[in-house]
Amino acid sequence: MIDSSNGNNLQRKEAQGLFADINKKWEEWYKATYWADDPTTPLVKPPLDPTPEGLEKEIWVKASLLVDGITFDESALEGICDVYREQSRWLFDWNIGEHRYYLPEELLLPMDSIVQVRENRDSRWLCTVEDGIMLIKRDGKFVIECRHIPRPKYYSQEASPDIIMRRIAPKRGQDCLVLNYATFCMYWANNNGCDFCNIVPNISWTKDDLQVSKRSYEQILKTTKAAFDEGCLKHILLTGGYLNQYKNKSGEIVDREDEMILSVIRAMQEALQRDDIPVNVIRTAPEDKDLKSIEEHKKKGAFSVAYNLEIWDPILFDKYCPGKAKVQGRDHWLRALEVATEVYGPGRVSTHFVTGFIEPEASLLEGVEWMSEHGIGSIPLIWSPVEGTRYSNFRAPKAEWFVDTIKKIVDIRLKHGVDAFDPAALPNDCHLCGMPSLVAEELRLRKVQREFEAKKKMKAAA
Ligand code: SF4
Asked: 210, 257, 315, 427: least buried by Cβ within 10 Å?
């Protein structure tokens, strides 16, 4: 059992204190935007209050849309790139099959669950607008209403001549700025990329809308400042592929990933005029044997980190994540996660698992148990058989498998006291962030269930 004596729910208090001004500004932006009733954005509407039944339905819809994909008719694409936010494929291309037009990045369900759009023109799910209301249908029958996310104003501003800010750092979900510090992954240089990933093949077909691969310090600074000045963001996620170490002129080994990440963090610190910024860094496990770099990284401004193991089973890990297995190795990866938890404290370290791909449920749950015992947040991503991988014509398990598995994962997290982290520590635990995982929604559902139960008890006692 982890020591969760530090603050209210794994350092939430500390994060909320540090970033109180940023959070307040976002809350004001959120209210002003969703309750504006602006006739130019008729599909931007406020959410409904969450209920246990409503959230359970939204979890099932989200799982289904991530597994089956969704198709759009023209009515649901009107206003994209103009008043509603477009997809900008900031890391991978998650769509199923090719597409040649702009899609929304995500869809908002009535109680604010967010679904990443994975277009699949063969899907039984359709998004359409009828009588001014955006709907999701399955096999032609109404299932649920949905809404668009407004396009931030900073998207169209210039970070430098001819480069709009969306291509430097777009927004994910309702409140997260994302920046892909490395659009290439060097495991691929030796044909050792993870088998489920399309980071390198997707570069060729997403070059017009993907983030630009080389950004200047100035572009990052200007974009971060404009985005946070607008108030439409609360926190930041930095992510990218693996970058190898190199020897500099003095013969020192330099961690290229750290070098890039820290230069982005410096630009962002300057933009926000503070040392503590709400930034979560997803990177590969640092390679230095004694892992001292983790402490350095924290000192220089990373607020929280994730080293994604992807697969728990050692044999499957070696086979399907050959780059990670050969360069760092599974034991070193786990040790890096442990050291990071000692350095950052539980509540600021996490790892992703790719679920529904190859790993049996029992082994996945064993991994979640180990992570939870160490105070590490497990994020189970819903696998998509994406283009550019050898699995592009495969299918993920049914939505019901993911709905059932996420309950078991959240039971384990809660058993060890690993409830939702603060978004600055783990954006993917936040239901506003829209990651292709059900964990944020299930943790939110449990919270709402507890609140409903408490209210019932109070009523009965009155
Ligand atoms: S580490 Fe694996 S999942 Fe991440 S970008 Fe590289 S190949 Fe893809």
From this structure: 315
The three-point CA angle 394-395-397 to 5° equals 145
Q: Which atom of ligand 1 is nearest to the CA of 91?
A: 5
Q: What's the mean pLDDT when you consider all of the chain?
A: 93
* Dist. CA 79 → ligand 1 center (Å): 33
Residue ranges per structural domain of the chain: 42-145
Which residue is closest in CA terms to ligand 1's atom 5?
Answer: 241
Q: Taking the model in full, what pTM does it have? A: 0.95
Looking at beta carbons, which pairs linking 334-341 to residues 24 or more positions away fall under 8 Å? Answer: 334/309, 334/370, 335/291, 336/285, 336/286, 336/291, 336/294, 336/307, 337/285, 337/307, 337/309, 337/371, 337/374, 337/376, 338/374, 339/291, 339/294, 340/294, 340/305, 340/307, 341/374, 341/375, 341/376
pLDDT digits (tens, 9 = 90+) for 6-16: 544 667 788 98
187 lines ligand 1 (CB under 6 A): yes
pLDDT digits (tens, 9 = 90+) for 308-350: 999 999 999 999 999 999 999 999 999 999 999 999 988 899 9
In this predicted structure, the answer to whether residue 448 has a pLDDT above a threshold of 80 is: yes
Q: Establish whether residue 181 lines the binding site of ligand 1, counting it when its CB lies within 6 angstroms of any ligand atom.
A: no
The alpha helices in 360-438, defined as continuous H runs, are: 361-373, 399-415
Best of 89, 93, 187, 319 to mutate for ligand 1, by most ligand atoms within 8 A of CB? 187
